Amino acid sequence: MTFPGFPEDTSKFTRIPDPFFRDLLWVIDDLDELKVTLYTFWRLEHMEGPFRYLRFSDMLKDSQLVKSMGSGPRIARKNLEQALQMAMSHGSLLGTEVPNKRSKDWLIFFNSPRGRAAIDAIRRGDWRLVEKPEASPEISFDHPNIFQLYETNIGPLTPLIADALRDAEKTFPANWVEEAFRIAVERNKRNWHYIDAILHRWQEGGRDDRKDKQDRRDTEKAGRKYSDWEK
């Protein structure tokens, strides 16, 4: 087969981070691993939502991918599993095993702050898979986690912010985090430093839901000292 060339319509692209070419490409010495890595980049790029993932079972349904992995279903599955394991060991992809109705499946994520946050949440039991008839299962949150709250109310994650959020999630109760975000949104103080100030004030002075109004007045004062961050 000879590739006929790229069409003139170049409106659709798959973004690949520069570190892939700078650091990762040179350590990939297996063709199947390279195929799986680029395939996953492509599939995740064209998905929607803050947390994007592929199921291993869905990858097995892609006839082109499977055909490229081996001469028969068993060999193709084995090679695909090995390719994914190599990609995970090199750090380009992340995966975690989850149960479904018939067997166990794998969820595959891009190794990014959001991907790492998703893996952590699944392993803690904060996410559960909800099966829908004739549709791929979705991940359902009983309560929004700190990464969802940030992206919904403030903006895109960065590695530094993701680290700060991860530390805060370990330090403060989930209901405190949700309430602090709500207060920041109500006061139009949509930045992490203001929210962090609220959480630390509650940690240092205690928080009583019966004194919510007073807490809001106090946290507003605590947040003012970070106003320079908003400029």
Task: Give a written overview of the molecule.
By secondary structure, this protein is an alpha+beta fold. The chain has 2 domains: 18-141, Arc Repressor Mutant, subunit A, CATH 1.10.10.10; 146-230, Arc Repressor Mutant, subunit A (Orthogonal Bundle), CATH 1.10.10. The protein is 54% helix and 13% strand. It is built from 11 helices and 5 strands. The protein has helices at residues 18-24, 31-45, 56-60, 63-69, 73-90, 113-124, 146-153, 159-171, 174-186, 192-205, 212-224, and strands spanning 54-55, 93-99, 104-110, 127-132, 135-141. The strands form 2 sheets. A 3-stranded antiparallel beta sheet has the order 1-3-2, sandwiched between helices. A two-stranded antiparallel ribbon has the order 4-5. The longest helix is centred in the middle third of the chain and has 18 residues, at 73-90. The radius of gyration is 22 Å and the shape is elongated. The relative contact order is 0.08.
